[in-house]
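Instructor's aside before we start: the two examples that follow are unrelated to each other. I chose them only because their records fit on one page, so don't look for a connection. First example below.
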Amino acid sequence: MKYTKTACALLAAVMMAQSGMTALAAETVSGTDADRVGPGFETDMGAGSGTETGTESQPAAYPMAWERVNGVYMDSTGTPIEGALLRGISVSKWQANIDWGRVAADDVSFALIRMGSFGYEGEYTMDEYYDVNMREAKANGIHTTPYVYLQTRTVEEAREAARYAVQMAAPYEISYPLAVDVESQYLMDLSVQELTDIVNAFCEEVAAAGYTPIVYSDYNKFTTEMDTSQIPYDIWLARYGGDHNYPNRTMWQATDQGQIDGISGNVCLEFAFHDYAASAQSGQTALTPGEWAQENGVWYFYQNGNRLTGWIYPDGNWYYLDPNQGGAMVSGTSMVIDGITYQFNGSGVMQ
C-alpha cells in the first residue's frame, strides 16, 4: 500500500488539534479526477451522481422543497417525505470553508463528511477539510460521520482501506455510521460478485471495530453493479426525483442542489429514516465494549454474549481471532489472512 504524505499530514493535524492547535492537511493529487464526484461534490464543478443517469438533479418546482412544513419534510413536488426524521448534508473539500454555526441553525441535524479517496493505484488521499469539518460540525451540535470514496479493486485492499479509515475516525466522536461511497468508475469493470465482495469486506472491518457501516451509491449502481441482497448493511441511497424506497435504506440523498445557510453554492441534502444517535443512546444498535476471556490458556473476545471471530479493534490495536480455531486470538506468530502476511506480537497485537 502506498500512503501519500497527506495521510501522515492529517494524522499530525489531528494530534495538533487535540493539543489546542489548528492545522489542516494538504491534499496530494492521486493521479485521477475520479474522486471529484460523490456525496459532497458541488454540482457546478462537474456532476453529482445521485440520478440514475449520473446527471445533476433538476430544480425543485415546490418553493418549500426539502424544508419542514407543519413538522413534515416535503419533497420537490410538495409531497410529504414519508418516514423522514432528520435532515442532513454531505460535504467535502468542494464546499471549502463552512460556517457550521449557521448550518446548525438551518435545521441540519447530521453531516456526512468526506474522509478521503482510498485505493486508486494504492494511494490514500485525505480530504484537506476532513479534520476541521469533523471538529467544527461536532462543536455546533451536528452529528457527524465520515465517508470514504472507495477505489480498491480487491477484497484484501478493501479490508486494509477499512482498517485505515477506522484509524482516521478514531479521534472523533461518531454516533452515525461510517460510510463507504461506491461509485468510482475505476470499479465499474469488476463483476457484480467482485464488487459485492469488496463492499462487504470493507463493511465487515468497520463493523468489527464497533462502528455501524452504511453503503452509499446511486440506484443504478445498486441495481446493476452489485448484489445488495448479499450486503447485510444499511443503505444510503442517492436517487434524485424518484422513489426513495429501497431494501435496508436508512438514508436518502434527495438532491445535489440544496441551499443551506453557511455554505456557498449547492450542497447535497440527505434525509435520515433512522435516528442513529438516539438509538445509540438507548442501546438499540450500540455494541457493548466487549471483553477478553481466557479459557484453557487461550484468549477469546466476547461482545453482547457472542464469541467474535475475524479482525477486531477494541483498544486502538488490531487483533485477529482465528475462525478456524473457534475465535482463538492469534499471537506470537505470523499468519496469512486473505492473501496478506501479518505479524502478531506476544500480546496478539498486529505489528
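Example two begins here.
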Amino acid sequence: PDPKLLLGVQNYPVGGPDRWSIDQDFMTMQMVGVRQEMPNSDKRKARIEVADAAVERAAAQRRVERLNVRQSTALAWISSYSVERKDALFQDFYKENRLLSDTVRAQIAGGRAQPADAVTPKQEAARLAEQQDDLIQQRRQARAALKRWIGPAANDELVGRLPEWSVDTSGYSHNLQHHPELAAFAPMTREAQAKVREAVSEKQSDWSWELDYQHRGRAFGDMVSVQLSW
C-alpha cells in the first residue's frame, strides 16, 4: 500500500498558564511523519497472483468477446443473404403462376376445365404475395441485425456466396480444450485460487513502521520518533 503522511500537534495545552500556546510547554510538539503498512509476505504474493490472473482473465474474455462479435456478424450476414436469395426466387414463382393462369384460361376456353378452376391461380398468387410480404419483413429485420455489427454498410448490396466451412469431426474432441471459452477458465481458476490464498493470509498479522519528526518551542530541542507495530 501507499505510505501515509502524518501531520498533527501533540500534547497541546488547554488548561494552566500555558493554555492555547503552541510553543510554551516543553511537551507541545508540531509533528510531521510518514507511516508505511507492510502486509505479510504471503498476502503480498497472493495479491500479485490475483492481479496477474485478473489480467490473463480479462485478455481471455476479450478474445472470446471478439470471436462472439465475428460469429454474430457472420450469422447476421448469412441471414440477410438467405433472405435476399429467397426474395429473388419469387420472380420465378410469379412467372410460373402467370403461366399456370394462362394454361387454365386456355383449358377453360377449350372446354377442358371448369370456370371455377380459374380461382386456383388467383389463390396461388395471393399466397405468394402474402409470403413475399412476410419475407420483406424478414429482410428488414435481417438488415437491422446486420447493421448492428457493421453499421451503414449493411444497406449496401450483399456480394459473395455462402461460406463453405469444412467439418473435421475427428479433430473436435482433440481440440476441445483449446476452445476460447474453455481456455478462459484457466486464468479464472488461478484467480479464484489466489483469492483463497489471500484470504488465508489474512490470518497472519501485518506490521507497519512510522517515522515522526516533532518540532518544539525554541527553548526546547526537537525530537524524532520511530515506531514499529504488529
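The CA atoms of residues 84 and 139 lie 7 Å apart.
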